[in-house]
Specification:
This protein has 16 helices and 37 strands. By secondary structure, it is an alpha+beta fold. Among the domains are: 258 residues, 3-Layer(aba) Sandwich (Aminopeptidase), CATH 3.40.630.10; 171 residues, Aminopeptidase; 81 residues, Peptidase M42, domain 2 (Elongation Factor Tu (Ef-tu), domain 3), CATH 2.40.30.
């Protein structure tokens, strides 16, 4: 075991160097293999990935056939050997454009890869690739959790019939003006995230690992000027998910003597009700990342023979771990009889967790072993080099705006320090702020002495939803508790970041519900499911390994996030709730300045709103004890809007882009109508677009009411609240900041 571990580490290190991976390399702008994994390639739309492969392998004079297969030929004569790997992945194409600017979709392949495939796209950012190669950011619509209580027959978000893509358009003309049209492919955005023990997670990483292995193999053959007998053809094939059409095309043209398929291993295909024929079918061995190479076998009870036996012998010579696993041959389906596989045929893969989900996991050590095995099999020697290179870059002149900066700063409930620091950094240096025992950031303008107006408080919360580590399990996983509410399917089965006490982060995956990969699975729903504890997988396999990462109870977990401009003035990011409110208060302070003579106005950036308005409650209690309870409190928070094709328009129907919203009624407060009308009047007098209505959820101002304050919540309309797909219109943020400044001076 020790020699295997040392060899694997050596091979992985060689491969990382070969593919341009250094220990200090930034994850966001990764090396070649990141590029191969990160390039979307929905079935039938593999052109961008194919172009990347051709560029990297231009010295081999690759050719492309009518289906988009990329084919390279080395050597000559007999035997004719073929090594193939698929390029494609499951995804969607635009199937319709609605009059109000949403995209409808059709899945490719048209049969779902698993029971939760569609559901795990719900409320997630996506990318549409246009015919001209432009990437258009968007999101898949999702239900807003605050609007669902007592709703009848809400969509399950688990089928394309209930999927809508929002790119920020208001009508079909805007969609087409952006270059988006029918048949454009849709996929998840990519970022490879490193776990422990050489494990990585990314969408479709299990579909693209073969491209990494074979590009590296070819680079090694080229750099080492390796010699081998006969002809070697390496093909990167298209449309494997949609009937194996690329593979059928290659086999029909080439008729090789032998073939090695590198890719996902599919379980044996049997008619329903067919009894198992071997012990391996009754209790299949579950291999985990790091196990080494998997060799597909039709019957584990029969000794390996032919090419499979030769590969196993080669692996043993190199001391590479190789395990036989029951697998069906690569699928070739269609209306004509498929081309037969060569008699000498073998298929190899690697172990994956969460296959065909956004957080699929595999070990790059295993992928390195695949390359090593193929090189040794072809040449009879150990490889010495491969393709180098990296990609990416950053825009040093493209500084983010205030809203983007605050939105991309992490701060789950009870862990708002970084957000507080970002806000304080934006405030004028002479601003006299206070941070109280609850972590609230408080700025007071004017004073009650000599004031001719009422005492006013504006409050916006700094925290976002997330998880907190309760304990480390013996197997290295984290048991985590929810901080705030949200639909679990928006986060489980996706990558997460574990925030440690030293300020650094480790990537992990929030594990899916038990049984997710079984036919007929339905996501558990109910009043308490979003509060259930969950597990985070880190790639570690013991509590001691996790401790070495510096992770412990009390650390906190978030879903990664990024600000994405959409069409026009619209944008997507997670945690607009309530970084928009924080931004509006900062913009208002910038407009007002620090001197407000004759006024008594306090700005509060509060903590722990998502777990029960705790920070605001502490401020309210202290102000009351000090005899300074406000007369009016304006809580600045989300108006969870039904401006979505999935929601009922019965209530919460405030449109994004039509102005700020007076949150007149929610679950925690009813604002007196006289004050609602007064805010509307002031907005109209100052030409600020305004809306008002009823929504769900609670607001920070509600905890001031018991001390005699009047709560008048102000908001902006938000689509798909408490998800990674949140969408706003930045014009509403501007309107909100303007009304806060007006109220501070004129209320």
């Amino acid at each position: 075991m020790h020699s295997r571990m040392v060899l694997a580490g050596t091979l992985l290190g060689a491969m990382l160097v070969t593919l341009g991976i250094g220990p200090a390399r930034a994850q966001g702008n990764g090396p070649l293999w990141y590029r191969l994994v990160n390039t979307p390639a929905v079935s039938g739309y593999e052109q961008e990935l194919a172009s990347e492969i051709r560029t990297r392998l231009k010295d081999f004079s690759p050719r492309t056939d009518n289906l988009g297969n990329v084919i390279l030929t080395l050597g000559s004569g007999e035997p004719h050997r073929l090594i193939v790997t698929p390029m494609d992945e499951p995804g969607y194409v635009v199937s319709a454009i609605t009059p109000d600017g949403y995209l409808r979709v059709q899945r490719l392949p048209q049969a779902a890869p698993n029971a939760v495939f569609d559901l795990l796209f719900a409320a997630q950012p996506i990318t549409v690739l246009t015919r001209k190669g432009k990437r258009v950011a968007g999101v898949v619509a999702g239900l807003s959790v605050h609007l669902q209580p007592a709703r009848l027959n809400a969509p399950k978000m688990s089928h394309p019939d209930e999927m809508y893509v929002d790119i920020g358009a208001s009508n079909a003309e805007e969609v087409r003006a952006a270059g988006v049209d029918l048949l454009d492919p849709i996929s998840l955005p990519r970022e490879v995230r490193a776990l422990a023990n050489s494990e990585y997670t990314a969408p479709a990483i299990g579909d693209h690992f073969g491209c990494v292995a074979l590009v590296d193999l070819l680079g090694s053959l080229h750099v080492g000027k390796a010699k081998f007998s006969g002809t070697l053809i390496v093909a990167f094939i298209a449309q494997q998910w949609t009937g194996g059409r690329g593979l059928d095309r290659i086999l029909n043209e080439l008729s090789p003597d032998e073939m090695i398929y590198v890719g996902r291993l599919a379980p044996p295909r049997k008619a329903p009700g067919t009894p198992p024929t071997s012990a391996a079918e009754v209790a299949p061995t579950v291999f985990k990342p790091g196990a080494g190479i998997l060799l597909g076998a039709s019957d584990e009870s029969v000794p390996l023979s032919g090419l499979a036996a030769d590969l196993k012998s080669s692996a043993e010579t190199q001391h590479l771990a190789l395990h036989a696993e029951l697998a069906a041959p690569p699928r070739i389906g269609g209306y004509a009889a498929p081309t037969s596989l060569p008699k000498r045929f073998a298929q190899i893969g690697v172990a994956t967790l969460n296959p065909t989900t956004p957080a699929e996991i595999l070990s790059m050590s295993d992928v390195g072993d695949v390359t090593e095995l193929l090189y040794r099999y072809m040449t009879g020697t150990v490889r010495t080099g491969g393709l180098g290179g990296s990609y990416g870059g950053s825009c040093s002149d493209c500084g983010p705006g205030l809203l983007q900066t605050l939105t991309e700063t992490y701060g789950a409930s009870g862990h708002e320090a970084a957000v507080r620091a970002a806000i304080r950094k934006v405030l004028p240096t002479e601003a006299k702020t206070e941070t109280d025992a609850a972590g609230n950031l408080i700025l007071r303008l004017g004073s009650s002495a000599g004031s001719t107006g009422k005492k006013i408080v504006f409050v916006a919360h700094m925290d976002e939803i997330g998880y907190q580590v309760r304990s480390v399990e013996p197997d290295g996983r984290l048991l985590v508790d929810v901080l705030g509410g949200g639909y679990t399917e928006y986060f489980m089965g996706h990558a997460v970041l574990v925030h440690k006490s030293d300020g650094l982060t480790n990537a992990g995956v929030l594990e899916l519900s038990d049984g997710w990969d079984k036919p007929g699975f339905e996501w558990p729903h109910g009043p308490r499911t979003m509060d259930d504890a969950a597990h985070v997988y880190l790639g570690t396999h013991s509590a001691e390994e996790t401790a070495k990462l510096g992770i412990k109870a009390g650390d906190w977990v978030t879903v990664p996030k990024k600000y994405h401009p959409l069409l026009g003035t619209r944008a997507n990011a997670r945690s607009f709730d309530d970084r928009v409110g924080c931004t509006a208060l900062l913009e208002a302070v910038k407009t007002l300045g620090l001197n407000l003579p004759g006024r008594d106005v306090t700005f509060v950036w509060s903590t722990e709103e998502e777990v029960g308005l705790k920070g605001a409650a502490a401020v309210a209690e202290r102000m009351a004890k000090d005899g300074h309870a406000p007369d009016f409190v304006f809580a600045i928070d989300t108006f969870v809007s039904s401006d979505s094709p999935l929601e009922s328009k019965r209530f919460a129907d405030a449109e994004i882009g039509k102005g700020f919203v007076i949150r007149a009624i929610d679950n925690s407060n009813i604002a007196p109508l006289e004050y609602v009308d007064r805010v509307v009047q002031l907005a109209n007098e100052n030409n600020i677009p305004v809306q008002y209505g009823v929504t769900g959820g609670g607001n920070d101002g509600a905890v001031f009411v018991r001390y005699g304050s009047v709560d008048i919540p102000l908001s902006w309309p938000l689509r798909y609240a408490h998800s990674a797909a949140e969408v706003i219109d930045t014009r509403d943020v501007d309107a909100l900041a303007k009304i806060v400044a007006v109220l501070a001076k004129s209320w």
